What does this fold into?
Amino acid sequence: MKFKNSTRILLIVGILLVVSCQQDETTTQTGQQSTEDIFARNWLEADLSAIFTGEEMNYPIANQQLKKILNHKEVYQVRFVPGILDNQLHVKVVSVDAAGAVLAEELVTQDINVMIGKQLETLKNTVFDKASVAKPVVAKHILQFDKAATYLNSWKQKSTHNINEITSYDGMRIRHFSIEPQVIQYMIDLGSEFINLS
It folds into this structure.
């Protein structure tokens, strides 16, 4: 059981790595004026220092939500799309095809009862054998527990100081972060109740 929890936390950290390292393409908006547009526009225009308080923020994504996202043959990429509704950060998990068309999406909200920081601290000295992950596309997203704990702590500190800068690339706020569908499938196959986005 400890290994299963460790693996789940390791994948959480993998998502952290995706969010921190991938400077994804900024896409042009097409179409419908709706809550979608408000969600995205609020993210692009908000002063994020009022949203990110330096406290740990966790967004558990249920295994069933991940399955719905991948329930299409043409999934090329899975995107994590941040947005603001009612002055709170939310994340949409979206699957897209090779042309960027949305296939499925799931809204994920913050859960203040989920805290992984302490779990990561207790696992700092545990080493995960990345070679045990058969697919290199998955293994490249996995951080060791000590690096994950350091990253999570530094992210909390950044969030109170220069969050508006670190969520931008070349002067434009990042619209989404992407990950390969094989990584999401690996997370699903772990059989955990949820995967956490921090």
In short: Residues 19-33 have pLDDT under 50 and may be disordered. Strands lie at 59-62, 77-85, 88-96, 102-108, 168-169, 172-173, 177-179, 194-197. The chain has one domain: 2-197. Residues 19 and 90 are 14 Å apart (CA to CA).
